[in-house]
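Researcher: We plan to redesign the surface later, but first we want a full-length starting point. Tokens attached.
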């Protein structure tokens, strides 16, 4: 699972998903837009539109799936609920992984039922350029004893471990920067897939603050 606000999806998300698929030899990556992301302001664009952009961004890429399941729930989109639904679908023995960038990871101890996340899945933390910081104490306690140093160690159990990965194609791209550029009529070409750029421009998304 790679969850996100995807407001909008960009090449940092898509390239990371593809790298995870290959490096961890996953069957698939569910990219799951949050209907209502718990720890941030309301996204600029409606969930259905963010899902449409994600679908365009993924295109026919094998192994990447635009998964609408969080749009079907009301209330905050807690990842613990999403992982529980994936666990129910894949069964007790499947190795489930929740991937997230280092910036999101730094706030993990503030999430809903953070310990439950480790009961349901392994966590893989993706290094992001521009986001390096010391771990808050509550986070250090949450992950104590869970860290492993190779993808192989994740495959031995269905859940419970933490792996940090520096992906070879680290990209300093953020949705914040993309929204900022669009709001001031600057180009986002080569930051998002062409089909995503085309839909954003055709529908005048993110143009006004
Ligand atoms: N360039 C990137 N490289 C690696 N991971 C990323 C990158 N951009 C986002 N992520 C991760 O993908 C997940 C979804 O990110 P999100 O949709 O919030 O995008 P964002 O670019 O961080 O957005 P914003 O700038 O609006 O906060 C998060 O776990 C985030 O850390
Ligand atoms: O479950 C939670 O409490 C929780 C709190 C903050 C973020 N998340 C999830 O983390 C993912 C990345 O969030 P964001 O805000 O960085 O886009 C996205 O799938 C969110 O739904 C989940």
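Model: Full-length starting sequence:
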């Amino acid at each position: 699972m790679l969850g996100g606000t995807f407001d909008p999806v960009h090449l940092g998300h898509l390239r990371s998903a593809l790298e995870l698929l290959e490096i961890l030899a996953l069957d698939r990556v569910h990219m799951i837009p949050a209907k209502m992301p718990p720890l941030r302001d309301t996204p600029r664009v409606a969930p259905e539109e963010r899902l449409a952009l994600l679908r365009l961004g993924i295109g026919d890429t094998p192994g990447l799936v635009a998964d609408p399941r969080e749009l079907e729930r009301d209330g905050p989109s807690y990842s613990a609920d999403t992982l529980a639904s994936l666990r129910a679908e894949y069964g007790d023995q499947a190795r489930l992984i929740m991937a997230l960038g280092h910036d999101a990871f730094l706030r993990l101890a503030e999430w809903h039922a953070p310990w439950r996340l480790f009961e349901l899945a392994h966590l893989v933390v993706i290094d992001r350029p521009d986001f390096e910081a010391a771990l808050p104490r509550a986070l250090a306690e949450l992950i104590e004893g869970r860290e492993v140093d190779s993808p192989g160690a994740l495959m031995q159990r269905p859940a419970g471990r933490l792996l940090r990965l520096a992906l070879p194609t680290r990209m300093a791209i953020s949705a914040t920067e993309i929204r900022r550029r669009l709001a001031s009529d600057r180009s986002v070409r080569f930051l998002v897939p062409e089909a995503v750029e085309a839909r954003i421009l055709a529908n005048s998304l993110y143009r006004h603050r």
